[in-house]
Amino acid sequence: METELSRELGIEHAIFGFTPFPAVAAAISRAGGLGVLGAVRYTDPQELARDLDLLDGLADGKPYGLDVVMPAKKVEGVTEADVEAMIPDGHRAFVQELLTRHGVPELAEGEASGWRITGWMEEVARNQLDVAFDHPIKLLANALGSPPADVIERAHAHGVLVAALAGSAEHARRHAAAGIDVVVAQGYEAGGHTGEIGSMVLVPEVVEAVAPLPVLAAGGIGSGEQAAAGLSLGAQGVWLGSLWLTTEEADLHSEALTRKLLAAGSGDTVRSRALTGKPARQLRTAWTDAWDDQAGPGTLPMPLQGLLVAEAVSRIQKYEVGELLGTPVGQIVGRMTSERSVQAVVDDLTRGFERAVTRINRIAGRSAT
Amino acid sequence: METELSRELGIEHAIFGFTPFPAVAAAISRAGGLGVLGAVRYTDPQELARDLDLLDGLADGKPYGLDVVMPAKKVEGVTEADVEAMIPDGHRAFVQELLTRHGVPELAEGEASGWRITGWMEEVARNQLDVAFDHPIKLLANALGSPPADVIERAHAHGVLVAALAGSAEHARRHAAAGIDVVVAQGYEAGGHTGEIGSMVLVPEVVEAVAPLPVLAAGGIGSGEQAAAGLSLGAQGVWLGSLWLTTEEADLHSEALTRKLLAAGSGDTVRSRALTGKPARQLRTAWTDAWDDQAGPGTLPMPLQGLLVAEAVSRIQKYEVGELLGTPVGQIVGRMTSERSVQAVVDDLTRGFERAVTRINRIAGRSAT
């Protein structure tokens, strides 16, 4: 599974694996793909430095990347306290009532919730970049719009390719104009923040919009047949996030969440504003149902919603409150039915790809060797 | 583009084209695919007989099919008047207000609206079948669930394959258990009634669920690259509906509607209950906005909504009221940018398919001849 982009990056398979776990990222790179570590949860740059050291040690010299969340719009001079003050009391009461109804215990005195608004602020992302450029990363991806021009320059000075996610051809064109090197076309099926255009339609639209820039197909890819489909649509590689969540190397918040993911079907996700205030695909739970219910107060815009629910999400995860327990994940969750090693997943992807190519050649009346 | 199913049907390319227009269906069949005429608008069996004669004459002896709407659940002993009586006055007033606000003229005295609830009732579909089996159809598709057992038997006695649309693996399994021959896996991107699972995820799920039954990939397919993707996912053919709406042979309600389709992008459709009461993808218009607006009365369940809006839709189409004018269409509408002949569309599909196969072989490191 070799494309111009995979050759440029020096990887064996054009498989890009996004994951919040350093051990998973390293295993993807060792297996011949490119592991890309998600940095959003690292509010402390030292912690990121430690995990990048770990990744580096585990990767056996194979290339890897980093994914940051750098908002396209700067929020200047606003503190977390300012944002806190904008949250209506009725919304706080709604969260309290939900947690009480489901018997979710409080965090211990002084215990911080893991996920805060700070992870979405530019200052934090910039501190992360200082750490990142001290490591031999090969790809820097941004999940929220194009990175600022100086960041792109700095990446290029370090020989690092810059990628940005796009949910529409228009977004992709904006990224290309900003000078990025790779567009990740992320379809409606994907986990996390997605637009409404399905991968089948989006990927070729983005390929045409930014040619000759390379495009990765993201959203709905969890098998070699799906990888072949993404590459047929003109992509130079596939970008997978959800599929690694249930690998043996992953360190999910709880066994209960892993079991929920393994049991879920493709129809068990929902595109909801309940987590961040922007539509993000995630497991459908009593939590998303409550926020999406017309009888409730509705969600707040980003970044208010994320700040409002941060502590609640931490409590739900820590105490493994089954009905409320969820995570961002794509429709491909239906294919995640057993815990496997990352290597086994990659082997399965490349074998399925070869099968699909053989089949498509038969359909085309060609014999391929 | 040859599969076991295309060979069984005696067609050159595994391209299945759904269309409400006999001239388009015939042109698809002449071009080497299988034209499938949508029967839902034929409330009068004589009219269907006339158009099947026409199709037959135009098809040059090539095989073609028919698509009926036969509800899975029987509505016994209920007349159109009974259903009319269930519509709340507030909803009628909402329609009136909408039409008045947009200055939509009345139909002339005695002029009937084209689309009625009757097209969705089993009795009508059964009359259509009597007509259909008098013609050399090769495929009978049902858009709403599995056809009744006696219809499947009758089709098989005539040597006709039976297909049914499915938006989930569970629906597909039910169709297979009912004894149908082909499943059309229709993803979220498609025009008309769709589920929420994107084609990239749905198609392989359905292929696995009903193997060894053949599956057609539907939803988001409008190029040869997309056809290659659908076939990579395990389908034995592709099912296209939207793409033919702007062909030269199509007889759309108005030039204004054709112009709207040619101008629309992939983000200009919406999955809305505004047309029938079930979620159906269509052009986003002031009409769908009004029904999807939380300030409005909301839509009624099928079949009430369809009956409620039938006359209004006819008036909007007849008088070409721009802001309200819409039609069921998939996200692929973004690719429909010029009026072309059906033959040109099919040529484009097969050429794009060959290009995609060459490219995927290069990515796989194979030389294909």
TrEMBL record, chains A, B:
GO terms for molecular function: nitronate monooxygenase activity. Keywords: Flavoprotein, FMN, Monooxygenase, Oxidoreductase. Transmembrane segments: none annotated. It is an enzyme of class 1 (oxidoreductase). Pfam families: NMO. InterPro entries: Aldolase_TIM, NMO. Its EC number is 1.13.12.-. The keyword Nucleotide-binding does not apply. PANTHER family: 2-NITROPROPANE DIOXYGENASE (PTHR32332), MONOOXYGENASE RV1533-RELATED (PTHR32332:SF38). This is Nitronate monooxygenase.
